[in-house]
Amino acid sequence: MRENLREKDKLKDYLEKHPYNLAYKFVESVDPDTGVYYESMRNYLDLAYVGTIGIGTPPQEFKVIFDTGSSDLWVPSIYCSSPACANHNVFNPLLSTTFRVSGRPIHLQYGSGTMSGFLAYDTIQFEGLVDKSQAFGLSLREPGKFMEYAVFDGILGLAYPSLSLQGTIPIFDNLWKQGLISQELFAFYLSKKEEEGSVVMFGGVDHSYYKGDLNWVPVSKPFYWQLSMDSISMNGAVIACSGGCEAIIDTGTSLLIGPSSVILNIQKIINAKQSYSGEYMIDCNTINTLPDIVFTINGVNYPVPASAYLQEGQEGTCYSNFDEGRGGLFISDSWILGDVFLRLYFTVFNRGNNTIGLAPAV
């Protein structure tokens, strides 16, 4: 979306109107030996990872973000009047024999946009899994430019039930309750630059996607996939999160998001300058000379090199992949470790014992 808006020179207007806020937010592919279900995702410019699901009987197809930073599923409906719905797939309840409507109005707010609509129930299918009578949202309104330029139709949330719409059961919980997966966990492998190769796996872990052993970290608050981080350092000196802080592991966020004053300091350290559009730009030649930024979690160091925390744009300019958390819903000293971090580290989300497993991705 940033790329789309940057090309149309509309990015500055968009970023002014939508400061970053924390979310309040069909190929059958199963390994018969391990019981792991694989859902392929397409990598759009390292900014979003999108998979395909089917809703209804017969299934209607939608592109969704598999998002660990929210807990609800929603897609656009044929009744949606927003411009965003005109250029995305929309769900037609009249074409599904298993559709049930609840009529309950819903409103969901995300870091970069909102959705208003109503609650419904239907069969959801992906990668050979068939989840019956799943609660999901159908949009009536998707205001603003975010959804209009998005490369996905809707969002499939994988955070805890405590974050979902009251009285609904999120998709992952239903997969487990219906006995469709053998282990109460899922895992993400995000490709770097390549469109193909990214995958979210359900019910087990494929060890060929990471090197060494998984380091397990307890979830500090079962709401988001939140953990306690020890510090953030560069060249051995702590530059952020001194004395510890909280971090959310979020597949639905592209960047590394932190408290405003801390992020501004990091931009200064790496010599990133603010551009007209409000983004921080830097000379691409510095990629080879800038040091790693090290995130220490549960006593283990997770280095993020300059090649990861800088993103190459067009015409030899690079952009900083650090961004500041703004707005009332952003937890003051919290970080969001988005796709920039998750491309480097294969991540297992274990609901069975409320832990997050991290290991270097292959």
Automatic annotation (TrEMBL):
Residues 49-359 form the Peptidase A1 domain. SUPFAM superfamilies: Acid proteases. Pfam families: Asp (PF00026). The keyword S-adenosyl-L-methionine does not apply. InterPro entries: Aspartic_peptidase_A1, Aspartic_peptidase_AS, PEPTIDASE_A1, Peptidase_aspartic_dom_sf. Keywords: Aspartyl protease, Hydrolase, Protease. Belongs to the peptidase A1 family. This is Pepsin F-like. The lineage of its organism: Eukaryota, Metazoa, Chordata, Craniata, Vertebrata.
